[in-house]
Amino acid sequence: MRPTDLLLVIDVQNDFLPGGALAVPRGDEVVPLINALAPRFANVILTQDWHTPGHVSFASAHAGRKPFETVELDYGTQVLWPDHCVMGTRGAAFADGLAVTHAQAIVRKGYHAHTDSYSAFVEADRKTPTGLAGMLRERGIAAVYCCGLATDFCVAWSALDARAAGFETYVIEDACRAIDTAGSLAQARERLAAAGVRLIDSGALR
Ligand code: VGL
Ligand code: ZN
User: Fold this and answer.
1) Which domains are assigned to the chain?
2) Which of 85, 146, 154, 176 is an active site residue?
3) Under a CB-based contact definition with an 8 Å cutoff, are residues 167 and 135 in contact?
């Protein structure tokens, strides 16, 4: 890989693995693949979904609502989730098997009680930046390779925002797994392709 390439490892956390609070089907399968990919990148950053207790994205915070329903919030439609990735909990910790010790930064997101953040770059209000784009620009990063969980939410939104911020952007699809609720995976793949994000398999990196 080039010295200006970054591997962005998205939300490989216990709550998104089988047995977790918001388990992504076969989410555990990405771990060995990411472990194998990461050493090939000089630049690696991890993201960590990191919610307040009672976060606005939790169905439990909305009387009478259930996970996977949607609600209208001031910033738009929000999918409601089971309580997950509460800051400081075991569920929010990185997967035990994830071995990416040379990662250089951890971007936490979703820590504002009233705003979700699927994207590693901009919160769900579509206004509040996390600061990641600035960090990458200062470091001279040109291309962002996204992997992790979940393809149709945090990976897709992060990739779309990486592209919008001007980075050449890839989603390594076999190093991702999807939640796929209400057609979300097909919709995400369409939006990614339309935005000029390249969908690739890890084999193409060889
Ligand atoms: C995610 C739903 C809620 C993700 C995070 O990492 O894709 N999905 N929070
Ligand atoms: Zn979340």
Assistant:
1) 5-50+83-204 (3.40.50.850)
2) 154
3) no
